[in-house]
Design goal:
The protein is an all-alpha fold. The protein has one domain. The protein is about 80% helix and about 0% strand. The chain is built from six helices and no strands.
Length: about 110
């Protein structure tokens, strides 16, 4: 239910052109995301054998940084450069909606 409200905050962000609704939605997204991250991290850590939990957590954080945070600005700039003449908020839409891929993979992982 909390993740659903995060989706509700995220979907309209690229469609706003005014600063205030964008900030309000981003604030709501980060606030609700703070509720989602600890349980998901706990589920991940508990799925690993106890002797491998420390290294599993370290590897997961390394992957977060290398695959999530590091390429983010580059991809944002690339999309902004190549697609902003079609849709001025294309880079923001790509940034916000790219979260759908891990959510789908998480849902598949939980249901299987």
């Amino acid at each position: 239910m909390v993740a659903t409200s995060a989706i509700g905050f995220a979907i309209p962000i690229p469609f706003f052109s005014d600063f205030r609704p964008v900030i309000a939605c981003i604030w709501g997204l980060l606030f609700v995301g703070g509720f989602v991250l600890p349980p998901v991290t706990g589920m991940m850590i508990n799925s690993i054998d106890e002797q491998f939990r420390a290294s599993g957590n370290s590897i997961a954080n390394m992957i977060y940084n290398l695959c999530g945070y590091l390429p983010g600005p580059f991809i944002y700039g690339l999309v902004s450069q190549n697609f902003s003449h079609y849709y001025k908020n294309a880079a923001m839409a790509q940034l916000i909606y790219s979260v759908a891929i891990p959510v789908i993979l998480l849902w598949i992982g939980v249901t299987i």
